Amino acid sequence: MRRAKISIIGAGNVGATCAHWAAAKELGDIVLVDIPQTKGMPAGKALDLYESTPIEGVDARIVGATTYEPTAGSDVVIITAGVPRKPGMSRDDLLNVNTGIVKDVSENVARHSPEAVVIVVSNPLDAMVYVAWKVTGFPTGRIVGQAGVLDTARYRSFLAAEIGCSVEDVHALLLGGHGDDMVPLPRYTFAGGIPITQLVPQPRLDAIIDRTRKGGAEIVQLLEKGSAYYAPAAASVQMAESIIRDKKRILPCAAFCEREYGVGGYFVGVPCVLGTGGVDRVIEIELDENERRMFQSSVQHVKELVRAVKL
Fold first, then answer.
1. Which of 92, 64, 88, 81 lies closest to 13 in space, CA to CA?
2. Contact, 8 vs 31, CB < 8 A?
3. Model pLDDT for residues 40-84, shown as the tens digit of each residue
4. CATH top class, domain 5-145
5. What is the model's pLDDT at position 113?
6. For residues 108 and 7, what is the distance between their CA atoms, to the nearest angstrom?
């Protein structure tokens, strides 16, 4: 049986860690691409990772490259390429420089893997998904952004630590833009089936939500040089696994919404069913007045970002 092929564009911390998680899950063969100053860097990282596979007992061909030819015929492409945030820098500050990078990557993806599902990780996420869609010309269902899975993971981990329970027992949902613009939904958050509001006092819940919104900035500040990569990579690979294995997971992703939620044709964070073709469908949930107001505010910021994109 043919193994799936996963290409990861960008061999920095996020991209290399995506390759690690994908290999550990034995999702398929992996191509790690970068155009670094040291041309052997992606090949070196790929070879090092490949040499770990006998120890872990996983079968995967892993290669590194500085051109896109080895990516031809990919089933899933994960785009992590771009300039990471630095201390004091917002995701919006990255818009111009990363638009150019994602545009170039998307042109090559369309040329070499015209049937691929594309997972965008580059920031500012909500705008970069739009760039990838416009440049590739792919159907909207085959372009999806990784955002909600990461934000939800941060939210769940903080809640589990607060409650003193397993992270596996905390289930949560967030909507809207990535990071600062996320829309928490405590009504849809549970631990062991128990509503989170019965387990965490409102002041503590508010503080956890605020920490989740600033989760990326907190790590940037702690690292001083660089940004988060373990959790973003794990989130991206969870999405890739649902697509490659047609698991039909319901995951919060940046997906194209036209009539859904009254968005009007933008990629925003919503719960999606992910399968072989990418986004099988967007799931619309009921929102109360306050939730809808926050969601509309988040969508408005996404629209402003997209309007600022210059292709």
1. 81
2. yes
3. 899 999 999 999 999 999 999 999 999 999 999 999 999 999 887
4. alpha beta
5. 98
6. 12
**Distance of alpha carbon 104 from alpha carbon 118, whole angstroms:** 14
Q: Could you give the C-alpha distances from 151 to 9, 30, 100, 200, 223, in angstroms and in order?
A: 22, 26, 26, 19, 19
Question: Which pLDDT belongs to residue 226?
Answer: 83
Token duo for residue 287? 């929102």
Q: What is the pLDDT of residue 35?
A: 86
Query: Which residue's entry shows tokens 């896109």?
Result: 68
Q: What is the pLDDT of residue 1?
A: 66
Residues with catalytic annotation? 178
DSSP category for residue 117: E
Task: Judge if the upstream peptide bond of residue 124 is cis by omega within 30 degrees of 0.
Answer: yes
Q: Residues in the chain, how many? A: 311
Provide the b/e sequence for 157-185 (b: ≥16 CB within 10 Å): bbbbebbeeeeeebebbbbbbbbebbbbb
pTM for the whole structure: 0.95
Residue 85 pLDDT: 64
Strand segments (E) across 56-193? 62-65, 76-79, 117-120, 143-145, 170-171, 174-176, 182-184, 190-191
- Those residues of the chain that have pLDDT short of 70 are 1, 37-38, 85-92
DSSP string, 42-67: HHHHHHHHHTTHHHHT----EEEESS
DSSP E strand boundaries for the chain: 5-9, 29-33, 62-65, 76-79, 117-120, 143-145, 170-171, 174-176, 182-184, 190-191, 194-195, 249-257, 266-275, 278-282
Q: What share of the chain is helix, strand, coil (3-state, %, to 5)?
A: 50, 20, 30
pLDDT at 147: 84
As given in the structure block, the two tokens for residue 42 are 């992606």
Domain residue ranges in the chain: 5-145
Q: Are 28 and 3 in contact (CB under 8 A)?
A: yes
Residue 278 to residue 28: CA distance in whole angstroms: 17
